[in-house]
Amino acid sequence: MTTVEKIERDIRELPASDLRRLREWFVQYDAGLWDRQIEEDAAQGKLESFAAEAVEEHQAGSAGEI
User: Fold this and answer.
1) Which residues, 6 or more positions from 47, have their beta carbon under 8 angstroms from its beta carbon?
2) Is residue 4 part of a domain?
3) pLDDT surpasses 90 at 64
4) How many domains does the structure of the chain reveal?
5) Is 1 part of a structural domain of the chain?
6) In degrees rounded to 5, what are phi and psi of residue 46?
7) What pLDDT sits at residue 65?
8) pLDDT at res. 60
9) Boundaries of domain holding 40
10) E strand spans, 1-66
11) What is the pTM of this model?
12) Angle at CA 61, nearest 5°, toward 52 and 57?
């Protein structure tokens, strides 16, 4: 049994209150990972092309509403 399979099995056995706590924790944990990845990508210039494209669309009047 792999580690992931064991975790999946253990999660299925959690009481509802613990599952709710795990879900809340995981959402925060995953969001933190995502934030760090975006910060790293920005620091490395990986988002520059997206920013330039957005500015071009705005200047051309073709940018849509969010």
Assistant:
1) 38, 41
2) no
3) no
4) 1
5) no
6) -70, -15
7) 73
8) 92
9) 15-60
10) none
11) 0.67
12) 20
